[in-house]
Structure formats: structure tokens, C-alpha cells
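Chapter summary example.
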Amino acid sequence: MLLLSPSLQGHRLIYCRVLAAIFARAGRDVVVAGDLRADGVAGHPLLTGLRERSGVSVVDAGPAAAFSAAALPALLRDAGAEELFCADADDLIGDPAFTRAALPGVRTVGLYLRTTNYIYAARPPWLRRLWRRRHGRPEEEAFHEGGPAAVSPVDAALVLDERFAAEHPLTHGWMPDIFREPDGGGEREETQRWRARVTEVLARAPRRPVVVYVGTNQERRGYDTLLRLAAEEDAVFLHCGRLEPHDGDRPEEVERLRALLLERGALLETAGPYVHPETADVFLRAATCVALPYRQHLGSSGVMLQAVAAGRPVVVPDEGLMAFRTTSFGLGATYPAGDEQALRRTFRALLARRPEAYAARLRAFAACFAPACVEAAVLAALTGSGPGAELPQHAFAVSSPAREETAWS
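The structure predicted for these 409 residues follows.
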């Protein structure tokens, strides 16, 4: 079978490793196709490990930014594949070469990571009506609301948003977001080394709160906001992940805050990627709660799920899927998006409450994303049989809210 992910940057490499393992266990010979020459991919130890797996081969699909579905017939032919799993099918929406006629006899599954976020996009009714008169439905909505059988080349559509899946049960299945690989068993040297460093830093500041950031520093994920939060709350700032030049408008402020925290003895950074998920757990569990001040992000968050699995409640903006999960399943608290003073107040409130108050709900929600649930969802979509993954709403006996009147509907 062919597992396609035009980009393998960031978390997509983890996706492909987990998916390839599922397909290999199901008896498939797996060919993974993606951009092998992109920054951060070539030479990455996780890519090296993927290449070395039995029953898995990796091929270069060319630059991700230029990928077209027109390349699919050749990739399928070279792989000898009769099954296709598109791990990032969002970019193929509207591609004129991505049609059923172009893929005869190929069982095709599309995983849509972000194009269902329109259900959270608020628009005034007058603007919605004006847009419809002039342009019709936005392309992403037209695709998903039309239904795979009507307008899509895929035999099965998977989405990360459990609310969307509950509202579209006949056309879309839910796949629990793959936020980490299964534990490998035993603690690696990398994790042991950083556990010692975290313990050392916290011992020097035993009464300070902890602000934690996991992943590459990015303004869209609120890296600068969390530095300010740490400085203003006299907190220790722990960063597990790559440290790149600041990608926002005020790099000088970011460097000033980092210098201030370093002078206080309240800054610890791995300054490079971590390989083992247990390493991130060490950083997350050092905090009482995990603030995730993402900017204009309406979809799923792997770091949010890492925090939940580590037993830490979250503080998130009051918009999108992150807010839906937090409020519906009792995973922490929300604050008005963009209001940093409200973020500070909410952060303090969760510090006072302690994570034990949320422990049962965090465990139950994390269980919905267990490896076995991911495998059930993927194989049900691939084979067209099986129950798939149980929605968190069913596990918690929570109903999805009605679609907002302000959405593109």
C-alpha cells in the first residue's frame, strides 16, 4: 500500500511512523512517499528509523509545495499498491487530478487535518449571505458538506475533530489525533539527561510556578506570550524542543525576556529536537498546568493532548476545537482569546486548584486517543469494516453542541 504525506516536516513524520506500523501489522507492505529533502527531514533519526523497519520502504515524492495528485498514478504503480492512504489530504482538495477516474481500483482513504475547522469560523449573518451570493460556498465547506460519495475521490474520509465527525456520521469517521508514538519501554538516555536538568533547575526555585513550552518556538503557538507570562509571574520557563530565530514581529522582546529569565536562573531549553515522547513528559509534568495561548488556531493540538496524557490540565483560548475539548470534557479552563491578563488570571486559578482535581477526566479523555483507538479508526477506514474509534462524546456521554449560527452554514 502507499502511504502519502507530501510534507514530512514536524509532526507529520510521527504520523507516518505510527500509520506505517499499523499497516505493517495488518499484513501490508508499506511504501511511504514524501518530501525527503526538506529542512528538518533529511537525516532526522525518526526518518532513519522508519527506513529501517521491516516491510516499510520510503521514497521521495519531490518538493511538498509543488506536489500534485497527477503524480499519484506513477507512485502507485511503482509501489505496486492497490490501497492509498493520504495522511494530509487537505492540500488535495480542489486538485483536478485527484479524482476517482484517475485512481481506478484503488481503495483510497483521506485524512483531513484542518479543512473542517470552518465549523468554528464565526461570521456575521449579513457577511455570510453576501459571500454566498457572490462566491457560493467556500471550497473546503463545499467539499466536506457535499459528502465523499458526491464530490470526493476518497472511499473513506477521516477527520481529527470529534465534533465534526459526530455532526457528519454518514460521511466522515473520527481518527484520534496521533500526538506521540507508543511508549518504547524503559527510559532512554535522552530522557534521563533532561530529567536531571529539570530537577536541578526546579530545586533552585522550589516555590516558583512553572511555564512549559513543547515543540519548536513559534509565535502562532504563543511562544512569546508564554515568555511574558513566565516573566510577569516570576515563573520558571521550561522549553522542550527546537529553538529557532523568532518568527514574529518583535524578536528583540523575545530575546530580552529570555535574557531576563536566564539571569533569574529560571530558564531551561533543550535548544534542539527531542526524539522520545517521554522526554516531553518530564517537562510537562514539571508544571501544575499547561498554558497553550495559540493564535487563531481552530483545530487539534498535539501538545494539548501530550499535556492531557501527562495528567496536566490546560489553559486555552475560547475558540475552536481546543476550547470545545476543554469545556466539554473538563480538561482545564479557557480564557478570552488574545487577552493576556485573562490568561494570567486563569493560569493562577489552575495553579491554585492543582491537577488532581482534573485527574479522572484527563485519564478518561487520554484513553480515547490510545494506540488501539487510532488503529481501530485507521483499519475501519481502510477496509470499510469494523467499528472504528469510539467518539469521546460517547465515552463521556456528552452531546455535541448545535452548530453556531455564525458559522458558514
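To summarize the output: Residues 404-409 have pLDDT under 50 and may be disordered.
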